[in-house]
């Protein structure tokens, strides 16, 4: 008898926490900072260096894309040290965005500076992520953006794939953008704007603006390299034309990637520490300690070491995560393990993330026997006794890490395609196991 059944995808058995935790975790560099600093280094007035940079799929896609557009990037003694030598931005090339929002949204404005066409494409899952606002802004600035392989090659593409026809310079000026689906539309335009002849006056015209800390991160990284940015009016940014100063910078650890590790202390009890925690940061992960405290943990920050301690009790929360949507999968998993209902609000834009995260979280929590419902702009999660099953991850690194968090308490959670964590954290399973290995 022949069978056309394909073998089930291998799954990773999420380990149960056998005892309270006592672990210190070293989290690699921030994805958001690494990919901003790489873009700015590639546009700078001389060679610069990133230290403690993230090396993961998203960062490596950014490195490859910048190299293909004329930037030289060499590894130093350590893979996380990157020496960046800018060159003229070259076209006649292709950029693979993978599933990286930072690559697909930050690089089209950069490619507008190229001396020829730059074709963008990515993973199948990337082809449904929103792109129109940034492409419409480029077109309004006089840049041709089109898909030569489309039925109407002059139409403005709404999604990947597309081609940006660089002409060697961008006049710049004033433009509107609707960034209600992603702050990355604003960040991408601002990052290249100092190299536009007249700079850029950008106005957000949408009803809501998610991920403000990430826009503040863009403005702060621009100011750090000498770019003049006026953000004194709400929803408006004015970037003056001028040089971008080459620098030698250290990248902060990724606080959003620290979140599932710190949250483990609440689920398993005990203490989890993350070293290198900045006292001042624009990362939305800065919200994590206070949110964990509201859910039953306690924390201290001493000499750059953040320690979160839990008792195993997790309380429900009503929280607006508009400013830090990328934290939602971690908090949804915690909510499913809590002793009272939770509401996560302000995160409608998660429907355009790596996957439709609201649908994916509701579906997977329900699959384990939990109760999770989508609302217009978030999730309502009512704790129920959970049972093990395969958790689908939909190419989403944060679906995988949140499934691991559930697996600390729910026996027999098997995580489909845990390798998807390589998007931002290539050694996730090793780090997770060593956190548990040091259980008291
Ligand atoms: O600019 C950035 O580095 C990011 C901005 C946010 O995007 P959205 O505003 O699309 O949520 C965030 O979720 C993403 O992980 C990283
Ligand atoms: C939304 C995320 O990623 P991206 O940068 O691909 O948008 C994320 O990391 O949670």
From TrEMBL:
Record field: transmembrane: none
UniProt keyword annotations, A-Z: Amino-acid biosynthesis, Aromatic amino acid biosynthesis, Cytoplasm, Transferase
Pfam family, one: EPSP_synthase
Molecular-function annotations in GO: 3-phosphoshikimate 1-carboxyvinyltransferase activity
Catalytic activity: 3-phosphoshikimate + phosphoenolpyruvate = 5-O-(1-carboxyvinyl)-3-phosphoshikimate + phosphate
ATP-binding is among the record's keywords: no
Residues annotated as binding 3-phosphoshikimate: 31-32, 36, 182-184, 211, 326, 353
Record's subcellular location: Cytoplasm
Record CDD domains: EPSP_synthase
Subunit architecture: Monomer.
HAMAP family to which the protein is assigned, alphabetical: EPSP_synth
Protein name: 3-phosphoshikimate 1-carboxyvinyltransferase
Organism: Promicromonospora aerolata
Source taxonomy: Bacteria, Bacillati, Actinomycetota, Actinomycetes, Micrococcales
Name of encoding gene: aroA
